[in-house]
Inverse folding.
């Protein structure tokens, strides 16, 4: 298999990640079979695709004349047999549960050609563990898109222990062809790069609040108006070089011992989950969420990410 031979995409899932990944491939010119468990899930997936296309169009990222062609490349299906038909590349975004993913891949492999590449969009599960059910483990890989996948460019490409180097290279090239910014991990690690960084930051943020150092509002503001803006241009290692490694060395010498190194879930997080306060989807989490505040922050985030997409096109 060569990346030039990949024409048909099988996308398993119609949810938050599934519809966005389907859209990204369709915009790039690929034929996509979008699998959902019911007609209702297919309908919901297409509805979200149309909303995203409308946003793209309003912001000049696509032309109105392109919309029917993009939609025409997507076919909604409700059986794995239909989904697998002619598939050159399978990307899965079903429930983030190891057993569920293993079951899906065990079934889909039997329906695909010997050259099909299988990718999971897991946020951090072991690709080796998922691939255990496959006959051809060398064709399995992680392609972790970030949420929202149609607005964020990063895709983490993570090989399992048996993944062939050819599959790694093809997956990387495919991500570039659809306009993404792939990063390749040398080896698998739980959480990959992004979620390891994200959880390390969240652990310290929660610890600052638990310890009474600052409020949650102050913590969020401190990140949004400093690190958040700078890290979009220079990553943490580049930032250290620009700031001076001697400075970071001296700060590390006294500060690291004062940071949280807990391996337990934060009491604040544990209490919220036990009470059923799961965040915006339940109306309360670390913050209270009304329909208006949720809408406002989503619009603000979307506008900011779209602005970055525009900048990416000019770089």
């Amino acid at each position: 298999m060569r990346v030039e031979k990949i024409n048909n995409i099988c996308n398993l899932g119609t949810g938050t990640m599934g519809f966005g990944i389907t859209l990204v491939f369709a915009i790039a010119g690929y034929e996509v079979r979008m699998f959902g468990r019911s007609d209702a899930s297919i309908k919901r997936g297409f509805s979200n695709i149309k909303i995203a296309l409308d946003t793209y169009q309003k912001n000049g990222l696509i032309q109105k004349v392109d919309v029917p062609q993009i939609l025409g490349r997507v076919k909604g299906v409700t059986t794995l047999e239909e989904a697998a038909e002619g598939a050159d590349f399978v990307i899965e975004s079903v429930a983030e549960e190891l057993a569920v993913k293993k079951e899906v891949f065990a079934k889909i492999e039997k329906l695909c050609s010997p050259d099909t590449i299988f990718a999971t969009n897991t946020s951090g599960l072991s690709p080796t563990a998922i691939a255990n059910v496959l006959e051809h483990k060398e064709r399995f890989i992680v392609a972790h898109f970030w949420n929202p996948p149609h607005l964020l460019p990063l895709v983490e490409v993570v090989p399992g222990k048996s993944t062939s180097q050819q599959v790694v290279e093809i997956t990387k090239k495919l991500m570039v062809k659809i306009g993404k910014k792939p990063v390749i991990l040398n080896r698998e690690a739980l959480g990959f790069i992004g979620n390891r960084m994200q959880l390390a930051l969240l652990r310290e943020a929660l610890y600052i609040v638990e310890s009474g150092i600052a409020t949650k509002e102050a913590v969020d503001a401190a990140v949004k108006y400093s690190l958040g803006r700078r890290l979009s241009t220079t990553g943490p290692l580049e930032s250290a070089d620009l700031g001076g490694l001697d400075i970071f060395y001296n700060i590390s010498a006294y500060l690291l011992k004062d940071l949280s190194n807990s391996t337990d879930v934060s009491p604040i997080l544990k209490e919220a989950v036990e009470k059923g306060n799961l965040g915006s989807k339940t109306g309360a989490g670390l913050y209270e969420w009304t329909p208006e505040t949720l809408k406002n922050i989503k619009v603000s985030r979307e506008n900011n990410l779209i602005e970055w997409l525009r900048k990416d096109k000019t770089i």
The chain has a mean pLDDT of 96.
